[in-house]
Amino acid sequence: MNEVLMVVMAVGAVLGGVDRIRGNKWGFGDKFESGFMLLGPMALSMAGMICLSPVLADLLGRVVVPLYRIIGVDPAMFGSLLAVDMGGYQLAKELAADPLIGSYAGLVVSSVFGCTLVFTIPVGMGMIPKADRPLFAKGIMLGLAAMPLGLVAGGLLTGLSFAACLHQNLPIFALALLLLLGLWRAPGKMVKGFCLLAEGIRVLVTIGLVLAAVGSLTGWQPIKGLAPIEDAMAVVASIGVVMLGSLPMAELLRRGLSRPFARLGSLLGMNPQSLTAMLVSLVSAMPALSMFEDMDSRGKVAAGAFLVSGTSLLAAHMGFVVSTEPDMLAPVLCGKALGAIAAAVLALCVRGSTEA
Fold first, then answer.
1. Distance between CA atoms of 61 and 64, rounded to whole angstroms?
2. Structure letter (DSSP) for residue 1
3. How confident is the model over 270-320, as pLDDT tens digits?
4. CB of 35 within 8 A of CB of 19?
5. What is the Cα–Cα distance from 28 to 13, expressed in whole angstroms?
6. What is residue 244's predicted lDDT score, i.e. its pLDDT?
7. Exposed, middle or buried: residue 12 (CB in 10 Å: 0-12, 13-18, 19+)?
8. What are phi and psi of 75, to 5 degrees?
9. pLDDT tens readout for residues 189-200
């Protein structure tokens, strides 16, 4: 499966590159360029945290490891509270007692729950018009409710038993439940809290980037244990290579499914823009969130639910897995896809979920 996907990405890179040479006549050359241009934003959001991960693991390990051992959960699961491409993977691997659980927490769980916690919710609540936030929050709640299905599926494909998947995810499920209650009872306060969390992470990432840059340029290490910035940039670059092919292929997929999506949308009672936003979110949540104003109420809830697991499935997250542990590609793709589909179905089936 990994080899087939890599061939598909290579075909996408060729398609985008050829179209760029031709002057972007087909519209794929622009996507090829966008994949490369994302290197800068990805480096700003990822490199600093990757460099800080060994230091954070050492500091947090003194508190987290004993606490998690009391309930029999691998400390790696703490790392999954961060997005996979914002230090979640590195932190999980550093804290892991079992390397297998470290891979599961750092790639499968971080790409779903961690990404939702530190990226999708704060960014979404900031981008979406105030009037649409209740529908978005309901979608997130339904996405979190369906999340265990994807996490368990990803765990089984990783090689964990069903009981182990449930046990290791106890802290995640407990935090998700608190998140559900908060979004239900006090959405305004939750929005402020998530915005503060996102800003705190941004500051921490910037500090890590500055310290690593100083170490690289002068040879002086302000903090012992920092990972070299060159290693962090190598991870970012490998993701960028995948993006060169994944974005043109995603655009090709979007065009091929435009008519079927229009028919499917009418059957499900949603406008085509809602289904298009879900498809686009498999590449990036940002354009999907920008399309919220054009969706109907039913689609807004379904898209919010879909984003919890589906965000960046075919782009940054897939690229990250390929650059770190290619053997984990199937658990991540299947877990995220199953969770996203289940969330959207749940949102469409729950009566009254589209009422603001």
1. 5
2. -
3. 887 788 888 888 888 877 887 888 888 999 999 999 999 999 998 889 889
4. no
5. 9
6. 87
7. buried
8. -60, -20
9. 876 777 777 788
Q: Of all helices (H) and strands (E), which one includes residue 156?
A: helix 133-158
Tokens of 84: 């996979």
Residue 352 pLDDT > 70 = no
The string of pLDDT tens digits covering residues 107-134 is 999 999 999 987 888 778 777 888 888 8
Among residues 32, 288, 335, which one has the least CA distance to residue 156?
Answer: 335
Indicate the residue type of 281.
S
Closest Cα to residue 142, out of 310, 333, 313?
310
Tokens read off for 23: 């002057």
Q: Residue 44: what residue type?
A: L
- What whole-number distance in Å separates Cα of residue 280 and Cα of residue 314? 10
CA-nearest of 294, 288, 298 to 355 is 298
- 73 backbone φψ class: left, alpha, beta (φ>0; ψ -120 to 50): beta
pLDDT in tens, 143-161: 999 999 999 999 999 999 9
What is the pTM for the complete model shown?
0.83
CB hemisphere CA count around 133 (13 angstroms):
20
Name the one residue in this structure whose structure tokens are 């981008």. Answer: 127
128, 136 in Cβ contact below 8 A? Answer: yes
3-state SS assignment for residue 100:
helix
